[in-house]
Amino acid sequence: MVKLNNRKIAVIGCGFVGAASAFALMQSGLFSEIALVDVDRDKAEGEALDISHGVPFVGQVKVYAANYDEIMDAQIVVVTAGANQKPGETRLDLVNKNVGIFKSIMPEFSKRKYEGILLIVSNPVDILTLAAVKLSGLPEERVIGSGTVLDTVRLKTEIGKYLNVDSRSVHSFIIGEHGDSELVAWSSTNISGISLADFCVMRYGKSRAFTDDLDKISDNVKNSAYRIIEKKHATYYGIAMSVVRISRAIVMNERSILPLSSMMHGEYGIEDVALSMPVIVGKNGVESHVPYEINSAETVKLQKSARNLRKVAVAAGLVEKEED
Fold first, then answer.
1. What is the value of pTM for the model shown?
2. How far apart are the C-alpha atoms of 33 and 125, rounded to whole Å?
3. Which has the closest alpha carbon to 63: 22, 101, 91, 28?
4. Which of 117, 115, 145, 142 lies closest to 130 in space, CA to CA?
5. CA pair distance 165, 239, nearest whole angstrom
6. What is the domain count for the chain?
């Protein structure tokens, strides 16, 4: 059994997201080794060399290209490999291409009996988290998706702007699919313990079109990635910082509560699908789901989001179709 090095992280896939994540991880100070793996070895070597030139500005970090044998001691392996989302294409449109890619990647971990944590970032992240669980042979608590961590940060930023308050004082989550069926848990949203409705009245009085504004906020968050892709063809800086945040929670054993994509087993009436709900995450991956309160209408939307994902998972051959 290979002994894990908790100061080592690996990134599989050196495209926009993988390279940006490696660059952000280099600056984070969390790791002494960052190993890059790509089907194009030259690409991995080029990115490693480029990122290494920034190391003297931040401290000592070894950044290098590697193969699968050389990353089995990494505490975390970040998987960003996959086809990019194109303009007009939804995350779920990517599923068949990227499940195929995962079928070539995940057996590398099962045959080497990897003991660390797989952090899935490739899209559609919920489907690919499920695929990684099914194909890697790892315990599901050690296979987690980046989920709606970035969506939730976008949400808090929008609410902060709306209320003219520091976004760090906003407590709210995007839940469900990282994609078109995601939803805001408005019923549990609060501003440092004060309900959103009360805080809104305090800021603007009862004349403000509260419900309409919330709909605009949720739409802005849901469509933000599409707007970026339309203008620059890819998103990568925000998700790179999300990778750093999740990695910090793991290597520092923070036991942070983050909306990560993980397997559901009956919570909210949802079974055998991966999607984002608040979970406690630490050095061993997902410790447990948090019993997050949502209202009945939100529960219905969450279950619909799960059904949408499950249909895609069935079509991809990852789970069996439920009997009528």
1. 0.94
2. 25
3. 22
4. 145
5. 24
6. 1
Indicate the length of the chain as a whole number: 324
Distance of alpha carbon 286 from alpha carbon 17, whole angstroms? 23
In a domain, 19, yes or no: yes
Instruction: Answer positive or negative: Cα dihedral of 258, 260, 266, 267.
Output: positive
What pLDDT does residue 209 have?
58
Write the DSSP symbol of residue 316. T
Is 201 part of a structural domain of the chain?
A: no
Identify the domain containing residue 23 by its residue range: 5-145
- What are the φ/ψ torsions at residue 181 (nearest 5 degrees)? -100, 10
Sites in the chain below the pLDDT cut of 50: none
Assign 3-class secondary structure to 113-162. CCCCEEEECCCCHHHHHHHHHHHHCCCHHHEEECCCHHHHHHHHHHHHHH
Catalytic pick from 53, 178, 233, 265? 178
The CATH number covering residue 41 comes to: 3.40.50.720
For residue 95, the model assigns a pLDDT of: 86
Does 112 map to a domain? Answer: yes
How many C-beta atoms lie closer than 10 Å to residue 221's C-beta? 23
Distance of CA 221 to the CA centre of its chain: 15
Give pLDDT, residue 213: 87
Q: Which two tokens stand for residue 256?
A: 């942070």
Task: Answer whether residue 230 is part of any domain.
Answer: no
Distance from the first to the final alpha carbon of the chain: 45
- Give residue 315's pLDDT: 87
Those residues whose C-beta lies under 8 Å from the C-beta of residue 23, and which sit 6 or more positions away, are: 51, 54, 240
pLDDT of residue 303: 97
What's residue 97's pLDDT? 86
Q: Is 233 a catalytic residue?
A: no
